[in-house]
Design a protein that fits this description.
Length: 462
């Protein structure tokens, strides 16, 4: 699959004279002492956009270890989400938070133990990334993919020591739709001699958004497998809907009735993780109200332990700590954020001027099976946003050979999930589930995800 239509985009996106600013961060408010890892923050210009990034050098061998560009989902979730909640070297202390400035703890199972990682605020309007013109805030799936590629090229031009490192693209959730598009764009650019040459070796996609219709459709068989709906109800829907549960014709009364009954069964289930409380999404206004109370040391908003029984605990309240922390002036100064460029930081900006114009990238994945890349696809088995059954279905549609069939993989002698490996003329795809994890598996099973990543990135079997 080619991306010729992207040639219509402004060539300024890949300006060789793009401005890159970078700063070394030695201490962070809320963290005790100097950081025991090298953290760089900065901005990279891509046209009229100033992309903000966090870069952590590998704590092992930065000159030889892989370089990863890590993009969170949303669209609109900051790279800070990956840095703090998923695969980065620190985590918020949530066990004894009483208000005010949140504190940070060193996290032992960071992917930066064995890889150099750029955590990017993308697309424009995410985190601390901003545009210098109003028009530049408008973007889409295809445009975001091109802009991200432009960021990478300009970043590498400013960091020539990492040009020869093996490069991998890492994405989470919604940004899974961008991963194969960016990979194809990199390959196409390398083939025509674009500089810098990107040493692309593969990509890893967690709970990846890939095919909108397939993902929504797979929720019903997944709900049946997880005993959320009865055998009879599932069979009624399967028969009357002919296996298609989205965009149902209103004239198909039996199918509509079955779907309505199923929705009544699962409407109070958390799609993020079917075992956790179903928490309402906090709006920016709610975030602001709760954040103000927490900053003022109010004990009425204490964050209960994840192991609290009942409905007191909600993962969304843990996310609030990032909004509180990043809106402190001292934190923004420590991160070298440009004053006045972003009025207020949100972990996930839900008000982007963003157009969804790609709903299916299975064709890109199919085309890339001839690329010789190494690919890791992983999913939490309690995720009903992007159910694993749908992921397994589109992987099967690639028609590539099974090299190692379904088997458990282990951490500390315990089953951490299940895996299967596929090959196609040098192309290798490893699929893995993470047992007990929900949407964005590293947020639930950081140790297991680190072990999975370490083995895969160093070409060991899971």
């Amino acid at each position: 699959m080619n991306l010729q239509y992207f040639l219509l985009l402004p060539l300024l996106l890949f300006s060789a004279t793009a401005v890159v600013s970078q700063n070394i961060v030695r201490t962070l408010p809320g963290f005790s002492g100097e950081l025991p890892f090298k953290l760089e923050t900065g901005y990279v210009s891509v046209g009229d956009i100033e992309f903000f990034y966090y870069f952590v050098e590998s704590q092992s061998n930065p000159g030889a270890d892989p370089l990863i560009l890590y993009i969170n989902g949303g669209p609109g979730c900051s790279g800070l989400n990956g840095f703090v909640y998923q695969v980065g070297p620190v985590a918020f202390n949530i066990t004894d938070y009483t208000g005010g400035l949140p504190t940070l703890l060193l996290y032992p199972h960071s992917w930066t133990k064995t890889a150099n990682i750029i955590f990017l605020d993308a697309p424009v309007g995410t985190g601390f990334s901003y545009a210098t013109t109003t028009q530049a805030y408008t973007t889409s799936d295809t445009l975001s993919a091109i802009q991200t590629t432009g960021f990478l090229k300009n970043w590498l031009n400013d960091h020539p020591d990492f040009k020869s490192n093996p490069f991998f693209l890492g994405t989470d959730s919604y940004s899974g739709i961008l991963a194969p598009i960016i990979a194809q764009e990199i390959i196409d650019g390398n083939e025509v001699g674009e500089e810098p040459h990107i040493n692309l070796k593969g990509y890893l996609i967690g709970c990846p958004h890939t095919d909108t219709t397939l993902e929504k459709n797979s929720r019903i068989p997944y709900a049946h497998r997880m005993a959320l709906i009865s055998d009879s109800l599932y069979e009624a829907a399967k028969t009357s809907c002919n296996g298609r549960y989205v965009d149902v014709e209103p004239s198909n009364a039996k199918c509509v009735e079955a779907i309505e009954s199923i929705l009544l069964c699962i409407e109070q289930i958390s799609l993020q993780n079917i075992l956790e409380p179903n928490c309402a999404f906090l709006t920016p206004k709610q975030n602001k109200e709760i954040r103000r109370s927490l900053q003022e040391n109010s004990r009425s908003f204490l964050l209960p332990s994840q192991h609290t029984t009942g409905d007191a605990w909600c993962r969304n309240f843990e996310y609030l700590l990032s909004d509180i922390w990043t809106n402190y002036k001292s934190v923004q100064e420590a991160l070298y954020v440009r004053p006045g460029t972003v009025k207020e930081f949100f972990r996930c900006n839900i008000s982007l001027s963003y157009t969804v114009n790609v709903n299916n990238v299975v064709g890109y994945h199919k085309n890339l099976t001839n690329s010789g890349l190494q690919v890791l696809v992983f999913s939490g088995d309690h995720d009903m946003v992007i159910p694993h059954v749908g992921i397994e279905q589109w992987i099967k549609s690639l028609n590539i050979s099974i090299d190692k069939d379904w088997r458990p993989w282990y951490v500390d002698g315990q089953v951490a999930g299940y895996t299967r490996k596929y090959t196609n003329n040098g192309y290798r795809l490893t699929y893995s589930t993470i047992k007990g994890a929900g949407h964005s598996p590293p947020e639930y099973k950081r140790r297991e995800c680190y072990e999975m990543f370490y083995r895969w990135i160093h070409y060991y079997p899971l």
